[in-house]
Amino acid sequence: MSVTAGVVAVQGDVAEHAAAIARAAARYEESVEVLEVREAGLVPECDVLAVPGGESTTISRLLHDEGIAAEVRDHVAAGKPVLATCAGLIVLSSDARDDRVSPLGLVDVAVERNAFGRQAESFEAPLAVSGLEEPFPAVFIRAPVIDEVGDAEVLAEWDGRAVAVRDGPVVATAFHPELTPDARLHGLAFFE
């Protein structure tokens, strides 16, 4: 049986997420087909879905303009897995704390954009993630931080601040797991 994985491709690390999904699938001996989602109609075909980073205001606007936002909500309501990274976390949050973003309300958290600083202040850190035995090499680039956590489960913290959560079928991270060769986080989100 093949897994159909969608990567929301309106902006962000689309190819990198597709490659990470393929690596994770191989690790779990799953066959996978990756679809790039740029318009409405493809999300319903997907078993799992990645919402990459990028610029949260642009991603939010395009998801609503293209009719993808409602399909992402339906995907989550059906209990299908989602991995949202960096700006994807902001867009799926319940409170983006930015009037330019229309959050989908799928992850019960409030976030602060760019909380870890500008691009020049990007960093990589070994991160203890609940569900992973060894630290994950988390890449933080203009990363948001989770200021408040409602019903979501905190999976990882950095410097005393939540940076990864699970809310139902959604795993959301402030960092970019797709930018490492380590596909364990995609495996955790999609295949466990």
Describe this structure in words.
This protein has 192 residues and is α/β, with parallel strands linked by helices. The chain has one domain: Rossmann fold. Helices cover 24% and strands 33% of the residues. It contains five helices and twelve strands. It has a seven-stranded mixed β-sheet with strand order 2-1-3-4-12-11-10, sandwiched between helices. A three-stranded mixed β-sheet has the order 5-6-9. Helix 1 crosses helix 5. The longest helix has 14 residues, at 14-27. The protein is globular and about 40 Å long. The model has no long low-confidence stretch (mean pLDDT 93).
Fill in the keyword field for this structure.
24% helix; globular; alpha/beta; 33% strand; 5 helices; Rossmann fold
What topology does this entry show?
Blueprint: E1 2-8, H1 14-27, E2 31-37, E3 48-51, H2 56-65, H3 68-77, E4 82-85, H4 87-92, E5 93-95, E6 107-112, E7 123-127, E8 136-140, E9 145-149, E10 153-158, E11 161-167, E12 170-173, H5 184-190
Parallel strand pairs: 1-2, 1-3, 3-4, 4-12, 5-6
Antiparallel strand pairs: 6-9, 7-8, 10-11, 11-12
Helix pairs in contact: 1-5
What composes the largest sheet? 7 strands, mixed
**Fraction of helical residues:** 10-25%
How large, in whole angstroms, is the Cα Rg?
15 Å
The assigned structural class equals alpha/beta
Uncertain residue ranges: none
Strand order of the biggest β-sheet: 2-1-3-4-12-11-10
Portion in beta strands: 25-35%
